[in-house]
Amino acid sequence: MDDQPNVILIIADQWSTRIADGSGQYDGVIQTPGIDRLAREGIRFTQSYSAFPLCGPARATIFTGLMPHHNMMLNNEEVYMERLGQVPTLDNLPTLGSELKRAGYITAYFGKEHAGGYGWNAIDQFGSMAYSAGGMLAEGSVFDQVFTRDAIAFIKQPHDAPFYMTLSLINPHDICKVLGGKVQGATIADAIFFCRTDDELYLRFKQRPDFPSNHHAPAIPGMQRDGEYMYEELHDWDENQWKRYLAAYYLLLEKTDWFVELLLDALRDAGLEENTIVIFTTDHGEMMGSHHLISKTIFYEESAKTMMLVKQPGKITPGAVDQSSLIGTQDVMPTILDLCGVGLPTGLDGRSFKARCYGQPDGDFSALYASNFDGRMLRQGPYKFVKSQIEGQDFQILFDLANDPDETRNVFGQAGYEQISADLHQQMMAWIEQEGIGLTFDDLSGKG
Fold it and tell me: What angle do CA 127, 131, 137 make, to 5 degrees?
């Protein structure tokens, strides 16, 4: 067991790759030395997606390697508890924790779980507290420092076997309750007593963040429900309110990154860096004002894309970038097991991209499927195809990301796109039939 690497899985919640992706391209706007360091020392995957861009379903795929309709986490656990009184997770399902523990690993988990218990399965150490709520108002700002302190303490303690540790940070999820929040009229934005107007300078005495390039581009019909609670309060926002929202979100990103940096420093100081795999990923993204929307659940790039940074000294070429492999949250579990030399359970939906981490083109990562409540997504080549059903109306949406990265034009069936539209639609329908899931979920049962 001595030659088996340690594993540290870091998860951030609601992190947008549009403004912080480890590439350094946003350095003039935001400072993220933690993930930038990981990207320099490992490999960065630029085409990584959430299997279902909502906390519970996405996290369950991370820890089980199964799509939500196979592990039965099709909503957040608090919704199940409120409506059914129980979370319908499956017993005896192989998880990341159970498989590594079986292989002789010490297991630890610090931070937000919110995966129906799949993340906690077979975990030995939890630190100061076990936390599995969704994260409301400013809970990340309260608890993330506790989780990080516990993770650092775990790294510093003696280990007589390889360890697997998850640090799951709530933030930048605190931005999710900027509207309304648990306390009526109180939001995290109200706690920011600077940059309230153009006259008040922002971090490092700069102007407040500017809008995304597609801020004023209207949402394409069929991409989200009209009247969805996360969007319905935005119609009356003025420019000042939007900029305060962005300012709050950027602050949360920088603070979350700081915890990543602290953990990396602790790993180095403990002399464990050379034999430890570090993965930084996210459950989903954040719309952060694109198309005049916030939050997640929908298939726009800002919501659906995830971070994926993997570092393994001596194995992964520092500074490598993979811009073609389409990988998802369901691929995290099999990849970690494979990197550790642990056999994969049968029946997984996810695939190991270990070879891709090492710069080898093994495996087929040319297409990727994802789900949400209202439809399904297929990514292939430069295209994204979404088939949805909202209030009884069917939609087919095709984005040409190479020519329209801001996703402002639906080119499904349009001149020059007839064949690719037909091909992707056929592939989507074949996948839906193969999976037996229909086009929509009813929020709880998985049946459309």
Answer: 130
